[in-house]
Amino acid sequence: MIDGLGAPQSLLLLGGTSDIAVAIAERYLAKRPLRVVLAGRPSAQLEAVAGRLADRGAAVETVAFDAAKTAEHEEVLGRVFAGGDIDIAVVAFGVLGDQAEAERDPTVAVSMAQVNYVGAVSAGVCLAKAMRRQGHGTIVALSSMAAERPRRSNFMYGSTKAGLDAFFSGLADALVGSGVRAVVVRPGQVRTKMTAHLPDAPMTTTPEAVAASVVSAVSRGRHTVWVPGRMRAVSSVLRHLPRPVFRRLPF
Amino acid sequence: MTEWKILTGWGRTAPTGATVLRDDETTDDRLMAAVAGNPPRGIIARGLARSYGDAAQNGGGLVADLTGRTQVVALDEAAGTLTAEAGLSLDAIMRIILRKGWFVPVTPGTRYVTIGGAIAADIHGKNHHVDGSFSQHVLSFDLLTADGAIRTVRRESDPALFWATAGGMGLTGIILRATIQLRAVETSRVLVDTERAADFDDMLARLEATDHQYTYSVSWIDLLARGGKMGRGVLTRGRHATRDELPVRSRSAPLAFNPRGWLTAPPFLPSGMLNQMTVAAFNEVWFRKAPKVRRGEVQSIPAFFHPLDGVAEWNRIYGPKGFIQYQFVLPFGEEDALRRIVEQVVRSGYASFLAVFKRFGEGNEGLLSFPAPGWTLALDLPASDDLAVVADRLDEAVLAAGGRLYLAKDSRMRAAAMTAMYPRLPAFRELRSTLDPTGMFVSDLARRLSL
């Protein structure tokens, strides 16, 4: 149960090796010990994260979960919820993909959409169902600034996040009155292993900053958060720029 | 009626959704059917929802709202015993019995609690130091248990189940009816002595010296006063007035009782209205307005016992984020620890404008009953992210001094702290595991604290 001051007792991380998901877990763990379920493809990295969170006081379980294998989602997530209520579930899996390659090879484009959008929709439906049954819980979906307006340089990734963003925004409305909530998080570029090969964009942020915003959004009951917060105003301006201008922006 | 609703406690934090059974769904037969149906996420009884935290919530499960069960089954006017359905409020009871010369044995700071809730939380009042808690005046109750049976549980003949249920937060079953012993009174007025305490030591000294002379005793502490004034406060203590003690004009209707609410807090008040500045100003006025000493003032029951009941839904003043109430008891002999805890609160800078302080008397056999011989302090604190850390530190200090927190007020303590504070919890768990092996009676509080 989430307590009266917003501290959860259990956390489910879908995409258990995501830097942002781990930072969220660590932020909660800094206050209190809790149960953490790491769902992801079995790997040494997943086990390393499990060890790291256990060292910080978490009771960690790992669960084999593949975002692209949507047929298994209901069964896998069903088992997770059978093991106890989940207070906060973070949908953190996703691939950045190679824009150029995806423009050439439809199978690459489709597999990005499979993971980032289709997988998220499937997981989102499963989570919402399970949380409605327990009458409480918060789903945190990691969207992106790139979801707000497609950019020439990464519209493949942007379009998958736009789909995810629309889905979870709608889901948040559908869940009003159920006791369950959904939060859509729109970070700008975050310095993670996923973006390690990219140069920093303006207002590049860190997983820790995203985690801080997520924790505060969950306890305040917000629906949408931008990280950093001033990104909200920036993205509002960008959204209204004439297209030829927007296309020529240098990032 | 059955309806999906989002529920919170009085502190308006941590909402969860549940299927609420009301009115025609809460007859004995319908509740037995609900229990027999083995609801997958269990069931918990709910009364007027004055528990501050999540005691009367059951996320995803059933919540039996018993406030529609208000029948008086029997009132023995000679012996002063009342048998009534569990949803009857103390307010309603007072309206029935006062004019017949009886009063409830124990009343908390609000009349808007049900009999069932009063037993489940084993509530206490200003007379705890002489009369103990509510359950000590309960003769018996009917309890619907997990096997689907209704048992009449008498304090004398079935102490084990009685004292698991008294203070058991609804986790042994649903209390359907109860018989309580009332207190005889000549009038509906209280004779009140008011005095100021200049600081914390003065407060303790006054309470130790003269508390036994009063039936009722409670004090208010200014938790924003620092330095030499730390722990200053106002003591209000009294006893029921006799007829001769009333002013002449009141003597013709000595048992008159007809309280009316005079205002309702508006919805949608912002959070943060109660901050250091506003509360400090309030506290200063409150302290100065109290007489240095005033003896024998005649006060009405609502004015003395239930001042906040005059403002309906006063919990809204803390805004949408809600608030927590932090109430603990420390054993006698731990006055130094108590002083340090008060200092800790003062230093934390959290503005509590309702800090209520009292000396408890003996505890009882209730396995999870809160009161214990010692000092109890209750604070209202607006919810915020930083408060979690402050409250956890207070827990540690309370625990280290052999104290504990009140479950009916709690919305945030750690399960481990609760286990350490309530040494009889293993006995409670054991009884529950035989009485209710599947854990059918369950609440958000029970899940959160792994009861």
The number of helical runs of chain B is 13
DSSP strand tally of chain A? 7
Strand order of the largest sheet of chain A: 3-2-1-4-5-6-7
CATH level-two architecture of the largest domain in chain B? 2-Layer Sandwich
Low-confidence segments of chain A, given as residue ranges, are none
The CATH H-level superfamily of chain A is: NAD(P)-binding Rossmann-like Domain
The CATH class name of chain A reads Alpha Beta
Going by helix content, strand content and strand pairing, the class of chain A is: alpha/beta
Strand content bin of chain A: 15-25%
Shape by Cα distribution of chain A = globular
Summarize this structure briefly.
The complex is a heterodimer of chains A (251) and B (451). Chain A contains nine helices and seven strands, in the order E-H-E-H-E-H-E-H-H-E-H-E-H-E-H-H.
List the helices and strands and how they pair.
The complex is a heterodimer of chains A (251) and B (451).
Chain A: E1 10-14, H1 19-29, E2 35-40, H2 44-55, E3 59-64, H3 73-82, E4 88-91, H4 99-104, H5 106-134, E5 137-142, H6 155-174, E6 180-187, H7 207-220, E7 224-227, H8 231-240, H9 243-247
Parallel strand pairs in A: 1-2, 1-4, 2-3, 4-5, 5-6, 6-7
Helix pairs in contact in A: 1-7, 3-5, 5-6
Chain B: E1 2-7, E2 16-21, H1 28-36, E3 43-46, E4 62-65, E5 72-76, E6 81-85, H2 90-97, E7 102-103, H3 115-120, H4 128-131, E8 138-144, E9 150-154, H5 159-165, E10 174-181, E11 183-184, E12 189-197, H6 200-210, E13 216-221, E14 233-240, E15 263-264, H7 276-289, E16 293-300, H8 301-305, E17 311-312, E18 323-331, H9 335-348, E19 356-360, E20 374-382, H10 387-400, E21 404-405, H11 415-421, H12 425-435, H13 444-448
Parallel strand pairs in B: 2-4, 3-4, 15-17
Antiparallel strand pairs in B: 1-2, 5-6, 6-10, 7-11, 8-9, 8-10, 12-14, 12-16, 13-14, 13-19, 18-20, 18-21, 19-20
